[in-house]
Design a protein that fits this description.
The complex is a heterodimer of chains A (187) and B (455). By secondary structure, chain A is an all-alpha fold. Chain A folds into two domains: 124 residues, no CATH class; 62 residues. Chain A contains eight helices and one strand; from the N terminus they run H-H-H-H-H-H-E-H-H. The relative contact order of chain A is 0.10. With 455 residues, chain B is α+β, with helices and mostly antiparallel strands. Chain B is elongated. Chain B has four domains: 30 residues, no CATH class; 108 residues, Immunoglobulins (Immunoglobulin-like, Sandwich), CATH 2.60.40.10; 47 residues, no CATH class; 192 residues, von Willebrand factor, type A domain (Rossmann fold, 3-Layer(aba) Sandwich), CATH 3.40.50.410. In chain B, helix 2 packs antiparallel against helix 3 and helix 5 packs antiparallel against helix 6. The longest helix of chain B has 21 residues. The chains are: A mainly alpha (187), B alpha+beta (455). Chains A and B meet through helix 5, helix 6, strand 1, helix 7 and helix 8 of A and strand 1, helix 2, helix 3, strand 5 and strand 7 of B. Strand 1 of chain A pairs parallel with strand 7 of chain B, so a sheet runs across the interface.
Chain lengths: 187, 455
């Protein structure tokens, strides 16, 4: 009981000292996760009373604990829902949904990376925040352009989309392996 | 009791092996990097396995972000410096401190989290919060920490630590720490004016009139010429009248030595800085600064001596330079207790350090019984002693039981007794209350000079 009192006091101290910007970053992570869940998962599963609270918890957890594996798990759950929707429920692959999910997943990832290193009571300079958001925005823009181009192409190339995916996938997998090898050698 | 000195070799050993290994703090991948790589690989696999372009495209921002962030790797560490302005800072005055982070690396530092600690007696704005800033490549950023100094002493600003997240949050470095930097805050001095003459002026150059004849400025009459007198001093008017050589006799100018003896055996009372209550050491240091300033302005010599385990002393000198040295010396006043040893009844220090002509002003709270013994011994040896009582009137013992307030009152009564006995022995004891508190006492001390010394 005394331990609970100590924890409440600690939480109150944290609330008193917390500054606005780190809190907003975490709120943005939570919001992005929720919207991504809403867009990716099939509508009937979201309406069910069993699944929806679980999804909300999984979406919000990275905002509470940005340093853990919660963000990875949350991204996997979002994509799992998307696959369930397109394969299981049979919905069409729509461009706006793909772009939305990709954008929100990446934004959640960078903002979680920021929240992991930003203390809750920090005084943040707006240069830092602006630079971070600008870089994230640039990546999102480039990948959105790529998505639009590729999905537009694949509509024309019918069977060629599979080949394209394979080639791109293998190239990126090779690149990722090289990167990991370099980092491991440095560390 | 000294420990055996550890001797170094004359030629330092080459630090080759160790120097190579420590080339800077390591840059470690963060969990974000692992997440980016994992998600990229997973989505690509799923895309290839299920034949879905959209899944491959969901991996695209992660891959592009990681590639863009990691195209150049950091090679060195940030450099931290703490600066504080070097002006003469007095208690209650403004302090301007700053912490500067400089980036000598090939990449910009996306996020630098800077934390500092400061002395509790320096109220620097927002110094208790971490700062999140960004430093461009080959650039620097300075975080200003202005504030007020609340108490005298050497107050440290720092140590400061910086953690950097670079490459879009994918790499982080271990904290870089820089040591604290001391800021000298001088005690505030009330103007102190004692207008009385000194009891025994021993030096030959100074501001005080003396009764002894010698070379000097003050005329003491005309006397007949004696061999050895200076020819310049011949008073021609009187000589012509009396048909005998007469010279003008002068009184020598003398200066006096004042010894300030600071009792640092213990600290009593809670210090509230310049705006709050004063503890014993606060009163001691401020009073010493005020008294030293007064006597140094009049051209007398002032020396300081600590009554404690260390028994630090400052040799006597005069002038403004000595005043600045006194202020520096006072910054290092700390409680210096000496354990009570029943078998050892000697003094904490030998009073033969004090010249017998000096005016000794002892600043003591008279809490330790050895202080009263020391005062009595000084008086019995024939010196002119003035005691300044530095105990704050509202000091009380915290904690304790139901009998503590009563015991405190009894102790205070006993202390008044001791003060009374000291006064009977000829040691005037005055409580320090700023300007004017010592005038009456010093007038009495000047009268004491006429009494034959010793008992």
């Amino acid at each position: 009981m005394a331990k609970l009192g100590v924890q409440i006091e600690a939480a109150r101290g944290v609330m008193a000292r917390a500054t606005a910007v780190p809190f907003l970053v975490r709120a943005a992570v939570a919001l992005g996760g929720l919207i991504a869940m809403g867009v990716a998962w099939p509508a009937e599963l979201i309406a069910s009373q069993l699944i929806a609270p679980l999804l909300v918890l999984v979406a919000i957890y990275p905002a509470v604990a940005p340093r853990g594996r919660g963000a990875t798990f949350s991204a996997v759950v979002v994509v799992g829902g998307w696959i369930a929707d397109t394969v299981g429920a049979g919905s069409r692959v729509e461009l706006w949904r793909v772009i939305t999910i990709a954008t929100l997943l990446y934004l959640g990832h960078t903002l979680t990376a920021l929240a992991a290193v930003l203390p809750y009571d920090a005084i943040v300079s707006f240069d830092m925040l602006g630079g971070w958001l600008l870089r994230a925005g640039a990546v999102v823009l480039v990948s959105a352009v790529l998505t639009v181009a590729t999905l537009g192409l694949s509509a024309d190339l019918a069977g060629g989309a599979f080949v394209l995916a394979t080639i791109v996938g293998i190239a990126c997998a090779v690149g990722a392996t090289v990167l990991i090898a370099r980092l491991l050698r440095r560390a | 009791m000294t420990d055996r000195l550890a001797l170094r070799t004359a030629v330092p050993p080459t630090a080759g092996g160790e120097g190579e290994a420590w080339s800077g703090p390591a840059w470690v991948p963060t969990r974000a990097l692992g997440r980016a790589v994992l998600l990229t690989g997973l989505f690509l696999l799923l895309g290839v396995a299920l034949g879905r372009v959209d899944l491959v495209l969901m991996a695209a921002p992660f891959a592009i972000g990681a590639a863009a962030g990691l195209r150049r790797m950091p090679r060195s560490a940030p450099e931290l410096t703490i600066t504080a302005d070097e002006e003469h800072i007095v208690e209650g005055g403004r302090v301007e401190a700053a912490v500067t982070v400089s980036n000598t690396d090939v990449i910009p530092y996306d996020l630098v989290v800077l934390r500092t600690r400061t002395s509790p007696w320096l109220k620097l704005e927002q110094a208790d919060r971490p700062f999140a800033i960004t430093v461009p490549r080959d650039g620097w950023y300075s975080v200003q920490l202005p504030g007020d100094a609340m108490r005298w002493g050497r107050q440290p600003v720092g140590p400061a630590a910086a953690r950097v997240a670079a490459c879009g949050g994918l790499l982080a470095c271990r904290p870089v720490v820089v040591e604290a930097r001391g800021v000298r805050v001088y005690p505030v001095t009330d103007p102190f004016n004692a207008t009385e003459a000194m009891p025994a002026a021993a030096g030959l150059v100074g501001n005080h009139r003396s009764r002894r004849p010698g070379e000097g400025g003050e005329l003491a009459g005309v006397r007949p010429f004696a061999p050895g007198d200076r020819l310049r001093r011949i008073d021609w008017r009187v000589s012509l009248r009396t048909r005998d050589l007469h010279v003008a006799a002068t009184l020598s100018d003398r200066d006096a030595e004042v010894v300030l003896l600071l009792d640092v055996l213990g600290e009593v009372g809670l210090s509230g800085g310049v705006a709050g209550s004063a503890s014993v050491l606060d009163t001691t240091v401020r009073a010493s600064a005020a008294i030293a300033e007064h006597y140094l302005q009049r051209g007398d010599r002032v020396s300081l001596l600590e009554y404690g385990a260390g028994a630090r002393r400052l040799r006597p000198a005069t002038g403004r330079r000595q005043y600045l040295t006194v202020l520096e010396w006072l910054l290092d006043v700390r409680p210096d207790p000496v354990e009570v040893d029943e078998t050892d009844h000697d003094n904490v220090f030998g009073i033969h350090h004090l010249s017998s002509d000096a005016l000794v002003m002892v600043l003591t709270p008279l809490v330790d019984p050895r202080s009263a013994d020391m005062l009595a011994q000084l008086t019995q040896s024939g010196r002119y002693v003035v005691a300044v009582d530095t105990l704050p009137p509202d000091a009380k013992v915290t904690g304790g039981g139901n009998w503590t307030p009563l015991a405190t009152r009894l102790w205070r009564l006993e202390r008044e007794n001791v003060l009374g006995r000291l006064r009977e022995h000829g040691v005037p004891v005055v409580a320090w209350a700023g300007a004017g508190s010592l005038d009456l006492v010093l007038r009495d001390v000047a009268r004491l000079a006429l009494i034959p010394r010793g008992r």
